[in-house]
Amino acid sequence: MVIKRYLDMENLDRMKKDFKFLIKMIQQKDYIGEFDLALRDNYFNIYYQGNSLAKIDFCKDEKYKITVNNKFFDGTSAQRDNRFKPIKKKDSFEIDLDKKLLHPFFQKKYINEFVSNIRKVNYSEELVREQAIITDNLDREEIIFIDRQIMGSSFPGRLDLLAIQQVEETKYSFLVIEVKLGNNRELKNDVAKQLKKYSAHIDNNFNNFKACYEKQYKQKKYIGLIGIPNYKEIEIVRPVKEMIVSLGYSGIGRIKIDQLRKNYPDLDIRTMNYHIDINKDTNLKIKEKKLPKEINQAIKDLTYKFMTINDYYQAIDSGKLVRKPRLTDDMRFYSEHPEHPMAGDNRFRRIKAADTIRSYVKNLKEQPPQDLLDQLHVSLFDCCAAVRHSVVQSLFYGGNDSSVPFLERLKNEEKESKVVKKVTEIALLKLKSPYPLPTKKEKIVIFMSNNIDLALALNGLCLEHDIKMIFPEADSPDIFAIARCALIVDRNFIDRSVWESFCDYCEEGEDDTPVFIIDANLKRSLEEYPVRPNHDNVYLVEQWLTNVIKNELSKLIQTNENNYL
Questions:
Q1: Please, which residues have CB within 8 angstroms of residue 168's CB and are 6 or more apart in sequence?
Q2: Terminus of the chain with fewer CB atoms < 10 Å: N or C?
Q3: Is 433 exposed, middle or buried (0-12, 13-18, 19+ CB in 10 A)?
Q4: Do residues 482 and 398 both lie within one domain?
């Protein structure tokens, strides 16, 4: 047999069931396109930028053997986790896991640490660009990247990418792709010779490759690795096609490519560069399409008579502005100082704009556009505390890593409003992962809700007892991957499939960790959403009953502390 890149049915069903959480996690917005789950000969690999982050072998009795490169595993929190027993081999660590430990091992924190090590020790510009090509062509019917880094005893080298290209409806043909940077010395005749060898090998063994990848496609479709196209099965037909993709360094690569085209006129050679279109009108039109009209207007209104708090106080000290008294007639002050950034209608327009954006971001089901976040980062330092308060809340709901340095700066500089400072602290806690996590689960509370007022109240309680609150994203399986003393969850916020998987996990693993279900309108919620963990430590509380939730959590914390006395 020349090639086998698929699983037996028993292992395929195990993968679908036991790794459902992982398949979903790598397809969510934080990771989409970053990872490949590649089916092999009755095992599979998780690839990050062309590097094998982990090899997973199926073992007896619902167990698995995980193999991770030494360089990627060394020094990570996973290595220090006592639940795993890594055995060091020559170039790798092997970890035998029961299926119940798959979630904890492949949690976001540990995966991110493996990724960080890969970036440090095994960075390859061409591999990164290969992944970019795969990512930018996801969910296309006309082309599917079916495999990468193909090699073996009989294969004449190592093929970068193997795609299948649509011929008609469910019929596809192989497309053999080699990716080279424009400054690569092989980007002359060598790459063409390599490509010809690869395509000839596939053509000479066509029936085997056809059967292998038709089956692999069907399996990937079955377990959810392929979304588009919608066909359950495909047929692969001749001919085997070839393509060379030259990336970047267009000035260096142009001469080589021209020569290559002369020597191999039948080759499909595509060049991709990093030319930037700076047409301002085009960019503005794109931005307008991203956001509703009222939000675009709100962004403009945030800049109306805008002045930073530092500039405001400097202007007062220099005599350019008068300080607006705390208690004053707004209409009179506005009539006397119509250009003042804190005068009536001037600040009211910015406050209304900030409130409008806050409501929009809170109800948004995806990451806000970066251009909106960029404006919020500026308005974070508005001289009006009410504007700052709403902007910080917006970043709590929808900020990203780029928001962290701005929030940290505000936290250090905020002197005027204690409320703004507290909200800034909770936004930072949500956006900035509190790793390393405490070693005892009694020191961790998981909070999955957009209720910022409740988060503020509970965080105060947690700080008193040296407990860390963490805020996984709505579609994150960290709710059961990370050991915790309690879970606070709004099921209208959390992804439904993650919640149902958590309930299954509790049942299978006999996990009875306390869960506070804080759905708004619990009666209606329980009718629409009846699934919940089937154990006695489930608290059903309306989320607006802040003191009730706080008191129950306080009792739980106190009980845990007494148990350790």
A1: none
A2: C
A3: middle
A4: no
Question: Do 322 and 245 share a structural domain?
Answer: no
- Residue 4 within any structural domain of the chain: no
Domain boundary among 272, 294, 314: 272
Whether residue 319 is found in the same domain as residue 253: no
The alpha-helical segments, DSSP class H, found in 224-308 are: 250-263, 280-290, 293-301
Other CB atoms within 10 A of residue 468 CB:
17
Show which of 90, 122, 154 is a domain's final residue.
122
CATH number of the structural domain spanning residue 490: 3.40.50.2300
Query: Any idea of the CA torsion for 185, 191, 193, 199, to the nearest 10 degrees?
Result: 170
pLDDT tops 60 at residue 341: yes
Spell 506-538 as b/e; 16+ CB within 10 A means b.
beeeebebbbbbbbeebeebeeebeebbeeeee
Instruction: Please give the share of the chain, as a percent, with pLDDT higher than 70.
Output: 89
Q: 303 in a domain, yes or no?
A: yes
CA dist 455 and 469 (Å) reads 9
Q: What is the largest CA-CA distance in the chain?
A: 88
pTM above 0.70, yes or no: no
* CATH code for position 114: 3.90.1150
Which residue range is the domain that position 138 belongs to?
A: 129-272
Rounded Cα distance, 19 and 273, in Å: 37
Give the separation between CA 246 and CA 526, rounded to whole angstroms.
56
> Based on the domain organization, do 388 and 446 belong to the same domain?
no
Predicted local distance difference test score (pLDDT) of residue 565: 46
Q: In the sheet where 143-150 sits, what is the strand order?
A: 143-150, 159-168, 171-181, 235-247, 268-272
pLDDT in tens, 426-477: 999 888 766 677 878 889 999 999 999 999 999 999 999 999 999 988 887 7
Between CA 499 and CA 476 the distance in angstroms is: 10
Tokens 């969510």 -> residue = 28
Do 4 and 41 meet the contact criterion of CB atoms below 8 Å apart? Answer: yes
Within a domain: residue 488? yes
* Residue 301 sits in the same domain as residue 380: yes
- Assess if residue 487 is contained within a domain: yes
Question: What is the rounded CA–CA span in Å between residue 220 and residue 145?
Answer: 12
- On whether both 59 and 159 belong to a single domain, the answer is no
**21 and 97 part of one domain:** yes
pLDDT for 48-70, tens place per residue?
877 899 999 999 999 999 999 99
CA distance 112 to 114: 5
In DSSP terms, 52 is beta-bridged to 47
Q: Within a 10 A sphere around the Cβ of 206, how many other Cβ atoms?
A: 16
- pLDDT reported for residue 189: 61
What are the DSSP E strand ranges found in 169-275? 171-181, 235-247, 268-272
Please, is 161 exposed, middle or buried when counting C-beta atoms within 10 Å of its C-beta (0-12, 13-18, 19+)? Answer: buried
Q: Indicate the burial class of 329 (C-beta count within 10 angstroms; 0-12, 13-18, 19 or more).
A: exposed
Neighbours of 44 (CB within 10 A): 25
The answer to whether 251 and 186 are in contact (CB under 8 A) is no
- CA dihedral for 263, 266, 271, 277, sign (positive or negative): positive
Number of domains in the chain: 4
Instruction: Tell me how far apart the alpha carbons of residues 301 and 411 are, in angstroms, rounded to a whole number.
Output: 25
